[in-house]
Amino acid sequence: MIIHPQGYNSQPLPTCREEMSRRGWEQLDVLFISGDAYVDHPAFGVPLLARVLEAADFRVGVIPQPDIKQPEQLQRMGRPRLFAAISAGAMDSMVNHYTAAKKIRSNDAYSPGGKAGLRPDRATIAYTAAVKGAFKGVATVIGGIEASLRRLAHYDYWSDRIRRSILVDSKADLLIYGMAENTILELTHRLAQGEDISALRDIRGTAYLAGKDHPLPAHSLPLPSFEDVVADPQIYNMAFRLAAEQTNPFAAVPLNQPHGERQLVVNPPSLPISEEEMDRIYALPFSRQPHPSYLEPIPAYLQIRHSITSHRGCFGGCAFCAIASHQGKRIQSRSIAAIIKEVDAIAAQPDFHGTISDVGGPTANMYGLACGNPDHERSCRRSSCLFPERCRHLQTDNQKNAELLAQIRSHHKVKHVFIASGIRYDLLPLQPDYYDALLEHHIGGLLKVAPETFSDPVSRVMHKPGAAVFTAFLDDYRQRCRQTGHFPGIVPYLISGHPGCTLNDMIDVALYLQRHQLKVEQVQDFTPTPGTLSTCIFHTGSDPFSGTLVHVPRTAKEKKLQKALLLYHRPESRRDIEEALHLCKREDLVTVLLDTHNSHRTAVKPRKKRR
Ligand code: SF4
């Protein structure tokens, strides 16, 4: 990848004719349409890709959150010369719009003023139709998390059915999935050199539709057809398993999945990018500000404006999380020197008062980590380097991460550096320098960790470490706090209603919380988001890898009772807890679980599971 970061100003990219004229541009090469407000910051995908193309000398404009009923909004910068790049935004639009209970959300963190309703449902499909209506025959490319995770036939929670690949439903010419810098650069260069979009069939990180008789790529792996996965949940499981085995970019083959008379072809993922490439991308001249036309603050921007992305990727492989299938399992880190330059840029902003709010990525303590055996990595088919047990090839050296934090702390304009990104607590004991620094300098009040459950059977479904690992961490953490005299509290994040979790399991989780003097403030009700293993299990009721039948909490009642158990310490949970204990014939625990005054002195052992 060749990027020339020098020579560009920090004006946002054009969003209207007047801004194009200021740059002396008559026509755009590429028009980005986004479901999010336009914030020219590298934490947001569309602005980042737009800057990557700008740095390669393409003329790029952005239309954020257009009203699809008004074609003139899409036409305001004219027809793009090469293609329109369409994204629903940083979140799947259905996740953005609806709660786990399918109720409409009242706000949207990615919109000015946090206002809801500024993007349509199924935004990728709606925007593509609108662009095709506004510019007849223009090439359309869809990408972003919504397109990425809906690239194959998939279960859709909101309509409670299997949907076709979003490429079929959107009628776009090409789909880009995963982290897209190299993919979109190759695509744009080849279109600029005169290739037709229908001829671009070999670019990593893309998917396309071909006629049934069209020759498929060599060695492509056939997946069960859309019609077959609709008809049989076990065939859906098989399709999920086959696709999940083809996520290592070094070993993956193309996939093909018939949809009616056509074949969906998914090329192998794009290759990870180097530290040098990461440094160049994040050093592009972002203004780091929302577009000046916004009059109201954008909540998601306020959260990240003084934070730093140090890396991407996650090798945790949690079943409910889509990060690995979007960003990849391999950690791609920036250099310390490049990150310190970003600290300089943040510190120069007038609204900076000395606090860096986060340094991290999907998992903060994975910065700088890698597989220690490149040969094994190239052929590795594990979805996680940590589950079911830590791989012996994983190197967990924390020197680079500890050094990074030390250098940021010593910056003359920085007073505080916090870590707000998630932390893998099972890695921390292997990272003593990082762990010490975290405790001493970087916890802003409470240490937030995400065991997600304390039930071992549920942990196995989630691909998380079990309760014993968390207990060992908790004991060690509390001991360190006593030794150092720092006592940041600890808040566990837990999920209710996850596949595999029965009411009995959740009663045991509540007892665990009580025994270990832990209180949960927020409960995440499980949402079957597109493309995850947990969503597959939610739909089929069985694990696609082991074939084991899995209990799936589906009724509003069961979900409510599970949630109440996690919030056992709240008076308003009392009636639901009594009901849950009655349903499970565990009334003997009523006094134990609800006697909050005696709770810390009561030693309760979990009873044997009734499964
Ligand atoms: S070989 Fe082990 S450490 Fe390397 S990528 Fe595979 S699971 Fe991770």
What can be said about this structure in brief?
The protein has 611 residues and is an alpha/beta fold.
Q: How would you portray this structure in words?
A:
Helix content is 35%, strand content 13%. It has 611 residues and is α/β, with parallel strands linked by helices. The protein has 3 domains: 17-266, 3-Layer(aba) Sandwich (Rossmann fold), CATH 3.40.50; 306-444, Transcription Regulator spoIIAA (2-Layer Sandwich), CATH 3.30.750.210; 494-611, no CATH class. It has a 9-stranded mixed β-sheet with strand order 2-1-3-4-7-8-11-10-9, with helices on both faces. Strand 1 (30-34), helix 2 and strand 2 form a beta-alpha-beta unit. The protein is globular, with a radius of gyration of 25 Å. The chain starts with 16 loop residues before the first helix and ends in a 17-residue tail after the last helix. Bound molecules: iron/sulfur cluster. The site of iron/sulfur cluster has 11 residues, from helix 15.
Strand count, sense and barrel status of the largest sheet are: 9 strands, mixed
* Cα end-to-end separation: 53 Å
Are any ligands bound, and if so which? iron/sulfur cluster
Percent helix range: 25-40%
CATH superfamily of the largest domain: Response regulator
Counting structural domains, the number is: 3
Radius of gyration: 25 Å
Q: How many individual helices?
A: 24
Properties at a glance:
611 residues, 3-stranded parallel beta sheet, Transcription Regulator spoIIAA, binds iron/sulfur cluster, 9-stranded mixed beta sheet, Rossmann fold, globular, alpha/beta
